[in-house]
Each structure stands twice: as C-alpha cells, then as structure tokens.
Amino acid sequence: MDIVDAIVKINSAVNDFVWTNLGLVLLISAGVILTVCTKFFQVSHIKEWWMQTIGGMFSKKSKARKNEDGKGSVSQFQALCTALAATIGTGNIAGVASAICVGGPGAVFWMWVAAFFGMMTNFSENILGIYYRRKNSEGEWSGGAMYYLRDGLGGYKHCKYVGRVLAGMFAVFAVLASFGIGNMGQINKIVINLDSAVLKNVNLGYAFGEVKWTSVILGVVLMILAGLIILGGLKRIASFAETVVPFMACAYILGCLVVICIHITSIGAMFAAIFRFAFTAPAVLGGGIGIAIHTLIQGFKRGVFSNEAGLGSSVMVHSASNVREPVKQGMWGIFEVFADTFVVCTMTALVVLSSGKIDLSTGAVAEGTDDATLVAEAFANVFGDFGSIFISVAILLFAFTTVVGWSHYGSKSFEYLFGTKAAKGYKVFFVIMIISGAIMTSSLAWDISDTFNGLMMIPNLIGVIALLPMVIKITKNYVDRRIKHKDVEPVLSFDPNIQSEHAKDIKREMQENEKSKISPK
Q1: Which of 13, 98, 200, 438 has its CB surrounded by the most CB atoms within 10 Å?
Q2: Would 438 be classed as within a structural domain?
Q3: Which strand (E) or helix (H) includes residue 363?
Q4: What's the CA gap between 276 and 184, in Å, rounded?
Q5: Phi then psi for 34, rounded to 5 degrees?
Q6: What percent of the chain is modeled with pLDDT above 70?
Q7: How many angstroms separate the CA atoms of 209 and 202, rounded?
Q8: 496 domain residue, yes or no
Q9: Secondary structure percentages of the chain, helix, strand, coil, to 5
Q10: For the chain, how far is it from start to end, CA to CA, in angstroms?
Q11: Closest CA to 93 of 393, 427, 441, 462
Q12: Contacts of 94 (CB under 8 A, 6+ apart)
C-alpha cells in the first residue's frame, strides 16, 4: 500500500507540473503564436476551410470521401472520422460536467478560448504531419510528431540529437497513454455506466474480489468487438469510424437539442452565466484571483482533453490521408476542433446548465450532485428512464470509438520505436488489455495515463513552435496558389521524391479542371 501511495503522490506532482505549471501555458501560448503568425487563418479564411472540409462533402467534384490511393491511405473524411473517434469520448459528456461542477459555468468560456486557439495548433500539426510523413515497409503512410521532431526539428543546425530524443520521448509517452486514456480508462467508463444504467437489476455475483461477473462478461464482449476492428488495420478502423462517428455525433446532438429546446426560456440565463463566471468566481467557491484562475484552468484543461489539439495524437491518423496538400488536411484539423468542442462540448454544457443542478445566478452546484451522472439526469428529466439509457449508449459509443482510434495512435508510435512488424504485436496486446479496463477498480491507471497524455504535449509543442517558419511557408504557398491564383511551385513534402510525385498529380488535376471549364456543356 505504501508503494501505491508513493506512486499516487509522484504522479500527482508530475501531473500538476505538466498540466498546470507548464503544459497549459505552453499549449495556449503555442495556439496564440500560431494564430497570429498565420494571420488568424481560422477566421480570415473561414470560407476556404469550411468549403474544403464538411462544406465540400456535398460537392460532386470533391475527393474528400474518395480514396483512390489504394492500401496505404484513407480518405480525408475517413481520417477526420477516425480522429474524431479518438477525440470524442467520455470527456465530452462527463468531462464537461466535471469542469462546470469544479470550475463553475465560466469554465465553458475558457474551453471555447482554448478551442479557438487550438484550431490553429491542430492545423499546424496536420500540416507538419503531412509534410514530414513517409511510406513504411508495407506501403502505408506513417506520420506524426515523432517524424517532424526527428526530421524537422532535427534538421536544424546542432539539433539532430535533440530532435531524435524528443521524438523518442513522444512515442514512448503516446504508447503508455494509449493503454490508459485510450483503452482501460474508456472501457472502465463503459462498464460502469452499463452496469449502473442498463444492468442494474442483473446480479451474477462476483468473479473475484470486488470484480463482478457482469464486468468480466462485458470486458470479453468489448475485447472481441474491438479485436475484429483493430486487428483489421487502419482501413477497417477508418471504415468503422466513417460509419459510426457521424451517426453517434448527430444522434447525441439531436438529443441535446431536444433537452435544450425544452428549457429554451433559460438559454439567455445559461449564456449569461457562462460569460459572467468566466471572469468572476462562483459564489460557492469564494472570491479571489486564485479561484478565478482555477475556473480558467478547468476550462482550458477540458478544451484540451476533449479535442486533443496540441497533444500530437490525431495527426497520426490525419497523416494517413490521401491528400497531397498539407494545408488541406490542416483545414480538416480546424474542423475537427470545431466539431468536437464548439459543437459537441457546447451541447453538453447547455444540457448540464439546464439540469437544475447548477444555480445560474450564483454558479453553485446542488448538494449531492454527481458530475459523472449529471448529463444522464438531465436527459432523464426530459425522456424519463430512456434518457439515462440513451446517455449510457452514447458513452458506450463515444468511449468505444475512442479505444479504436487510440489503437492506431499507439500502433504508429510503437512502429516508430520498434518497427512495422512489432506494431502488429502491440495491437494484439492492446486488445487483450481491454479486459483489464473492464475489471479495473482503481482510478490510478486513469490518473497515470492522464499524466502521460500531458507529457506527450511537451515535445510535440516544442516541435510545432520550432517548425513555425515551415508552417508559415506552407500556408502562404497554399494561399498564393489556391486562393490568390499565383503561379508558384507547391510546397508539399520534405522528401524530394514525394514532392515531385505530388506536384505532378496536382498539376495534372489543375489541367483537368481547366479542361472541364472550357469544354462545351
């Protein structure tokens, strides 16, 4: 027990340093710098990134949903869905509720601020991911923070070993985080929610200790389902995500809209509370600058946890996209943050504020409120027992897709460290560890993985900030060619062979577009 206590204390100290003293400052600073240096791209080119992402999905000319590159890649939309599968998790439901209960309604405002700047962090990560990616021994695209740290940062004078060390650190942290926040923590949430909402009247006894037979059975079922998807490789993961993610997100948003519409008369008070308590502490927490900063930190942390901008995680799947233009996948990164935080998390926040458990005039939380079940209670107030079941199913889908998405992140990080063949063994072990998540009774594994999640962020952001000149160069090149229609050579890849091949493809595509414009209808 002493060893466990020591681990808890050490982890707590590291976690506080990473997330509060260093990580959040680095994260927000990076977002602000990237936003300013790209001339507020997420605002100044909002039409461009909207039409190149979800807006272009309805265009017959769009190739966002098509993948004509064969085995080694997925479509742009599949890459987005796989990234959203990993980012839209239990944090979008219970996490947002927890942020409001701990930091007050004002935490939502700071969540938005973090997401606004996080758009450009995610944008920059994806640009670098596409620019520095390469094909592995099986012909699949491999990209991510470890590659732009090694080849990008490591390409600077006297930075060769610095880049390699940071790349290795990132990969190790990503692998370790994948087993916690990307696996056991999510599975544990699924089992607990199903056990309390759906299987509460089922009593099969205990398998051993405090572990129920229902937990073991659920763990086995989830392990088999996950194995069928994960062991099928990225193609199967992407196909699963493309089918499930839009459905689960739309269903959840629709349910939230019904709850919000029922409380439509309180919408003004909800938003007033969000903005008022963003700068003043809720009465229940007391006054003072320290408490106000606590509210800010809760919002920032929730923004990061929900959309993962700055962690360098989702870039590993975005790098597998069939896109040639780094900026095009960067724009999908902007949309990813928008969909995750500004849409899904905001819906959750309004549901929580409409629950009656949060006093909108004081920011106080009703006594006995459990943030883990707060969203379910809000749905139950409108839909009855079905509301609780709906949220349990939503958590099941959100958490399960997170597991599937993170399996790819861990696999690519493991591949970087030990090679393509070793990554196959990682996938098998990852699937087996799902059982551990189902029977886990301690939150220690979750807490430790949270720390590793934060540790991923530090080398990644160092790389993104150090490679800011490259991000600016690639972005300016895209704007000059695609928006201002200047005749300049495209900047597509650090690899001369890939650069040449993709440049030819783009030139051919543009010639075909020109022919289609002048051909008779």
Answers
A1: 438
A2: yes
A3: none
A4: 37
A5: -65, -35
A6: 84
A7: 18
A8: no
A9: 75, 0, 20
A10: 78
A11: 393
A12: 189, 371, 372, 374, 375, 395
| Structure tokens given for 486 | 């200047």
Give me the residue label for tokens 């090679």.
419
CB 120 within 8 A of CB 334: yes
503 CB-near residues (< 8 Å, 6+ apart): 489, 490, 492
Tokens of 221: 């079922």
Q: Phi-psi region for residue 312, left (φ > 0), alpha (ψ -120 to 50) or beta?
A: left
Pairwise CA distance, residues 319 & 313, whole Å: 11
188, containing H or E segment: helix 185-197
The HSE-up count of residue 430 (CA atoms within 13 Å, CB side) is 36
User: If we measure between CA atoms, which residue out of 439, 444, 414, 443 comes closest to residue 429?
Assistant: 414
Residue 509 within a domain: no
Tokens representing 321? Answer: 């996209």
pLDDT tens figures, 387-446: 888 888 888 888 888 888 888 889 999 999 998 888 889 999 999 988 888 887 666 666
Report the number of secondary-structure helices (H) and strands (E) in the chain. 24, 4
Which residue segment(s) compose the domain that 387 sits in? Answer: 2-55+75-486
Contact 399, 87 (CB under 8 A): no
- Asked if 146 and 413 touch (Cβ cutoff 8 Å), the reply is yes
Residues contacting 282, CB < 8 A, separation 6+: 104, 105, 106, 295, 362, 363, 364
**CATH number of the domain bearing residue 143:** 1.20.1740
pLDDT, tens only, 71-106: 556 777 777 777 777 777 667 777 788 778 877 888
As a whole number of angstroms, the distance between CA 36 and CA 90 comes to 32
**Average model confidence (pLDDT) for the chain?**
81
The C-alpha angle with vertex 95 and arms to 377 and 436, in degrees rounded to 5, equals 100
- What value does the mean pLDDT take over residues 339-362? 86
Enter the tokens of residue 440: 């886990």
495 domain residue, yes or no: no
Query: What confidence tens digit (pLDDT) does each residue in 229-248 have?
Result: 998 888 888 888 888 888 88
Is the Cβ–Cβ distance between 440 and 215 less than 8 Å?
no
